[in-house]
Amino acid sequence: MTASEFALRTDGVGKRYRKGWALRDCTLALPAGGVIALVGPNGAGKTTLLRLVVGLLAPSTGTVEVLGHDVTASTPQTLSRVGFLAQDHPLYKRFTVAEMLRFGRACNLRFDQGLAERRLAKLGIPLDRRAGTLSGGQQAQVALALALAKRPDLLVLDEPVASLDPLARHEFLQVLMGAVAEGGVTVLFSSHVVHELERVCDHLVVLNHGRVTLTGDIDTLLAEHRLLVGPRTATDLDRAGAVVEAVHSDRHTTLLVRDGAIPAAPGWQAQPVALEDLVLAYLRRPSEPSAAVTSGVAA
Amino acid sequence: MTWLIWRQHRTEVCVLGLLVGMFGIALLVLGTQAHDLFPGGPARCAGEAGVNEDCAASFRRLDEEYGYVENLLAGFYLVPVVIGAFLGAPLLARELEDGTWQLAWTQAVPRMRWLAAKLAALAGVTVMLTGMFTAVLTWFRQPFDAWEGRFQYDAFDVEGLVPVAYALFAFGVATAAGAILRRSLPAFGVAFGAFLAARMSVALLARPAYATPLTTMEPVPVGGSMDQAGHRPVPSFADWMIEHGYADATGRRLSWTEYYELEAAANRAGTNLNQFLHARGIQQFEIYHPADRFWTFQLIEAALFVAVAAVLIGVVVWRVRRRIL
């Protein structure tokens, strides 16, 4: 792959606040095209990573390269290729929706006002209402329309649906996936909910305690991991270093292994693992510097 | 950007503009009437208060009819601070409060260009509003200045260049405090407090030391403060008196206790105090800044406050450039 085929490449990126490190040793190479989910519990460093990606923050260590350009350079050209929807979708509360669109037109190079107006009309959001008086779901839709009208090559969304009710969440994801289907845009979004990811995402990054613990193409990750269920045993089973997690119940031991397609030992039953269980297993692992596991990108 | 800045800050600009306009018109009306008391213009009466009959009458009427306005105006040295802090505080703080900095700085306008445009526009409005207000106030005070000089706190602090510098100082403090505290209202408070502290210490400690004050030393006259030739005593009313007192024949300054002892001795001896002091070679000394240093002092003080404002704006620019927000 050449540099521009990566939507995002980070090399040894760390970010330290006064309180301590929010993100450490983050090395990623995410392909352009498709939808990338950034998953992790609250406080894992997701917002910090996304702000680094869109250039709102500067990394304390390492480099961040978006669409082949160093983001800290932030020229109008590089800025216009990346759209960002921050957490809680901030808008200028006292602007009308029409004024928000005018803001977008005034501050961007290739702003498609007609596109934004059509999207908002389809959703029945009136242009003369003040942004602050709209419902949370409508505000999120206005912010999304604004970000999409930039015609970005990479759209970054920070917990886009976390504050929305189920109906608004559904509508939001529908619009977002519609935009992806229209083509051209790579979407990177963060979430602390693992539920439903499989349906919408192609690529996964798991972040925990400020470190990347798992990253890869979702189909590849699911093919590589298996659950092995056998009689309860306390002996060390991890001879090959392939056991991600061992769970012992009264009579059984369940192992999550990453061993490709090696046949199971006698007495053991192999099962495919659900994405949610896979992510949870990696989130439960104690954080250690060498825990990052990469897959899928190199393939 | 122009439209965006106007849309975001039009409320503050309009409120301040209205305020300045209302006060300005009131001062213009009252000032025209006050100026009319001086047929040849107030400047002609400067220093003539005790000599020229007409001027003395004009000054008396000025004091009777407009003295209250002058007293009110003493509080107006805070107007530039309100203007500067009101425009500076929300510049970054409101974006940080509402999270919209993430919106503003991810459009195609680089953040340094965004910041430069905002700083230039709002500092420009600050200078313009304060400048207009100060111009009217300086003109209004002309009759009063002719009488009292321009070095008193209620004149020096509201006239000429320093009000604009005060406003820029408040603008700088409010912007920097807003960037650090991330809240508009506390930033406004910080700017206000910082100005009061800075202005008080500058007016009391730094301002008298902008230049070496002049000293006059002359024997106590026999007949009173004005000698027979009738020329005005030096320093005049318009000069800025720093200190005055008495010294003995060798020029050693007397403490006020020593002076009161002499006064008591004169009383015991039953002689006229001035003659008593004159006979002993006691001299009067006065330490003062002459009135013509007004603009020099204005320039120095304005430069001082503008320099601090520039440093604070530099801090803001540095923080935004380094993305420490």
CATH superfamily of the largest domain in chain A: P-loop containing nucleotide triphosphate hydrolases
Radius of gyration of chain B: 26 Å
User: What is the oligomer described by this structure?
Assistant: heterodimer
Major sheet size, sense and barrel closure of chain B: 3 strands, antiparallel
Q: Please provide the count of β strands of chain A.
A: 15
* Percent of residues in β-strands of chain A: 25-35%
Poorly predicted runs of 5 or more residues of chain A: 294-299
Largest sheet of chain A: 7 strands, mixed
- Mean of residue pLDDT values of chain A: 87
Helix content of chain B: 55-70%
* Proper CATH architecture of the largest domain in chain A: 3-Layer(aba) Sandwich
Based on secondary structure, the structural category of chain A is: alpha/beta
Radius of gyration of chain A: 21 Å
What is the H/E order of chain A?
EEEHEEHEHHHEHEHEEHEEEEHE
CATH first level of the largest domain in chain A: which class?
Alpha Beta
Q: What are the secondary-structure elements of chain B, in order, as H or E?
A: HHHHHHHHHEEHHEH
Number of helices of chain B: 12
How far is the first residue's CA from the last residue's CA of chain A? 10 Å
How would you portray this structure in words?
The complex is a heterodimer of chains A (299) and B (325). Chain A is α/β, with parallel strands linked by helices. Chain A folds into two domains: 3-217, Rossmann fold (3-Layer(aba) Sandwich), CATH 3.40.50; 219-289, no CATH class. Chain A has helices at residues 46-53, 76-80, 97-106, 113-122, 136-149, 166-182, 197-200, 218-224, 275-284; strands at residues 6-17, 20-31, 35-39, 61-66, 69-70, 82-85, 154-157, 186-191, 203-208, 211-217, 225-231, 243-248, 252-258, 269-272, 293-294. In chain A, the strands form three sheets. Chain A has a seven-stranded mixed sheet, with helices on both faces. A four-stranded antiparallel sheet of chain A has the order 2-1-4-5, covered by helices on one side. A three-stranded antiparallel sheet of chain B has the order 1-3-2, with no helix packed on it. The model of chain B is unreliable at 225-232 (pLDDT under 50). Chains A and B meet through helix 2, strand 6 and helix 3 of A and helix 1 and helix 4 of B.
